[in-house]
Amino acid sequence: MKKFFLHLTLIISLFTISAKAQTKIIVSDLKCEMLTNPEGIDVLQPRLSWKIKADINDVKQTHYQILASSSLEKLNAGNADLWDSGKVQSDESVNVIYNGKKLKDRQDVYWKVMIFTNKGEIQSKETAHFSIGILTYADWKSTRWIGYEKTSPGDSISQYSRLSARYLRKEIDLKKKVKSAKVYIMGMGLYELYINGNKIGDQVLAPVPTDYTKNVKYNVFDVTSQLQEGKNALGTILGNGRFFTMRQDYKPYKIKTFGYPKMALQLFVEYTDGSKDVIRTDDTWKITTDGPILSNNEYDGEEYDARKEMKGWNTINFNDKKWLSAEYVQEPGGFYEGQMSANMKIKREVKPISIKQTSKGTYILDMGQNMVGWLQLKVKGNAGDKITMKFAESLQPDGSLYIANLRDAKTTDIYTLKGEGEEVWEPRFIFHGFRFVEISGFKTKPTLENFVGKVVYDDIATTGTFDSSNPIMNQIFKNAWWGISGNYKGMPIDCPQRNERQPWLGDRTTGAYGESFLFDNQTLYAKWLDDIKNSQTIDGGLPDVAPAFWRYYGDNVTWPGTYITVADMLYQQFGDKKVVEKQYPSMKKWMDYMEENYLVDDIMTKDKYGDWCVPPESLELIRSKDPSRLTDGELISSAFYYQLLNIMKKFAVIANAQNDIKHYDELASRIKKAFNAKYFNPSKNNYANNTVTANLLPLTFGMVPEELQQKVFENLVHEVEVTKNGHVSTGVIGTQFLMRTLTNFGRGDLAFKLASNKTYPSWGYMVENGATTIWELWNGNTADPAMNSQNHVMLLGDLLIWYYENMAGIKSNPETPGFKQIIMKPDFNAGLTYVNASYESIYGTIKSDWKKDKKALVWNITIPANTSAVVYLPTHNASSVTVNKQKLAQFSGTYKIEDNSTVLTLPSGTYVLNMK
């Protein structure tokens, strides 16, 4: 079963009933496992969650009672005809499984919760809603896929594919007054849906991409208010997306293609007299390809001719006699699923900062920020005038666009004017990664007011904030936000600008963990795990890219291993056991596959990428040629596989696969023994050729004998601090564990130096050289920039995790996943003088705001209701500590002295800690 939350933003104002003065307590964000649209979830026992907020400390839930009804009227009347849980003794307020009457296809459910706390009872007054989707393939049997499986004049089936958009319409006559109506749509590759001329929903680039031969996502909308008694018009536009692939008839051995755009739709209508009707796609729909969208290609851009606009095409009484009858077409092949992750939306706007004319008469627009989305254009001119906009990330020395790093992506939008006053246009079915735009075709000099940047990514909330005393670290954080958000495209992609844009697994092995502090990425990554599972071969192999739009099945450990590490992130950060249970059989199958095929003498012999993107010895090199900088691939794969075995042991417990635990234990023990025998140098106390990654992985994964750990760590530190002069020398693999391991072994100051450096190689070097996102290469500005994506996130490694867990002190206790108990243990002595961070966990907002000088440390913390925190202060002198102005001896909480720290266990609430 999947776990997916819907943020309903319902605020229920409630009050405790207590003998004491009434205190305000709020229950907010009632959630069900679904996306921001509460319609069409595809599980029959969804999990329900809520947050408790209070203006007093030490609020704990003791019981709950959930009431669920088939209508809002019944729920308001106290008739819980679907489920009355009764008063359940439990402190769990997330992932509570619905256990009422069996839900049916398209069942509406209205629910509310009563909370009982140690401070009193909370009486609920408001409700949340969700509906079940269409759960069986058979329920779509009367609905036919329709489309037009031919090219039109101007289309091209080639390396640079061009295909005009498909416009479909149908008029319907509703004889009675509508009580309720929902539409279920599968529009491949991308769609926009209209009823009576109005677009349904504010999503863009919908639905999310999948391998359409494995699964196809449908979206559901409540359209009751859009329909009227009498005549109505339904209209859709179909774009190409990942379905009609960007590169047709080109490298078919590598690039997977799916066919021409197509659609299946069902509109369920219930009338006020209780009767019902269903409108489906069939050959009575009309279709044309002769509309204004002449081409839409994610790599190359969108071309639009406003002279071909069909006014009123999606309203009633439009003359569609010249349109064709829609054709019945073959279905995509994949199983139909309700989309449980969020669609993309326009999330913000960016105004350009400058526009300059070039020597050839064109104009360069600077957005001031490397962003992902598109431009909205405002223009006046004559019919037939063409405005061309070409997008890129950077400029050449002469001020013109630098496009070599885009490879063969044309990244160009073309708008042809209709000549009717001011015209406003923006594309529908593409996106660009860009900071600069070359503009041509204006008859007069364009101004900044002619353009607005639209930022597009998945409709998920930003959950984390971070500010510190170090400006470089703060800018790196901002760059990370822009890079991560821009690469959320219904799946996590590697880059948004060149002819790649693929969901590489290795980019997110640990990256997803760091991202989870900035974004509510739970549904995105749960969906992606399904993509990975669906890409698994019959014998167990996993690809490097999933969905496998590119056929890269190379059989290595570090990239496919992301399947397991992302599931672990979802468990640790969101408390999601169900995702582990669901994916466990496929994970086990892959682990067995790798063991059977590539484990030789207990060493994992298969590695493909090594420590990818190690900083080269010269600013001009793309890849290092110095063997002393490169880590043995079998060392990496063996250490990584050992770590995955340990995670799988934990998963086996969750999945109740007890028989697997012994095998994982025994195999891990053998690999550890063989690893140390082969790679450990007892005379030097290091591993292999003594790279940072070679020593780091066994230290981090617990493969180093305890009595040797400090000596190995000293070798690691010497390599970082002396040999590499306090700079990063790890690639994608080592950087995933570098910052935390340095800090956990007592060298947070060295980690801070790496984080705050401004010289090569470092994250700060990117900032100092104008980066507003994260580069693909440490030296992306000098090492043949044609190779460098300027918006990649793979080199972040564990930096963001370190920001939150080690600098801010916001970490989920592994024993209580999902932040039920928080470990708050900042490294106050690493080098920062203040940190102000927050994180919106599944239980509520966690805040850590500390500031120190030579005399005192002041730390303001917030712990969500129904949770607790273990808080570490760097002193063994308890008398120097006050909590909310009370001496520790007088404070009601518990504390102990441990390893020169004063450790407090605090219940929920807001606290001011002072330490002299």
TrEMBL record:
Catalytic reactions of this protein: Hydrolysis of terminal non-reducing alpha-L-rhamnose residues in alpha-L-rhamnosides
Residues covered by the Alpha-L-rhamnosidase C-terminal domain: 809-885
EC number: 3.2.1.40
Domain (Alpha-L-rhamnosidase six-hairpin glycosidase) ranges: 462-807
Keyword field contains Signal: yes
GO function terms (MF aspect): alpha-L-rhamnosidase activity
Record keywords, A-Z: Hydrolase, Signal
EC class name: hydrolase
GO biological process, one term: carbohydrate metabolic process
Domain Bacterial alpha-L-rhamnosidase N-terminal: residue ranges: 176-347
Domain Alpha-L-rhamnosidase concanavalin-like: 357-457
Pfam families to which the protein is assigned, alphabetical: Bac_rhamnosid, Bac_rhamnosid6H, Bac_rhamnosid_C, Bac_rhamnosid_N, Ig_Rha78A_N
Superkingdom of the organism of origin: Bacteria
Name of the protein in question: alpha-L-rhamnosidase
Species of the source: Flavobacterium johnsoniae (strain ATCC 17061 / DSM 2064 / JCM 8514 / BCRC 14874 / CCUG 350202 / NBRC 14942 / NCIMB 11054 / UW101)
Lineage: Bacteria, Pseudomonadati, Bacteroidota, Flavobacteriia, Flavobacteriales
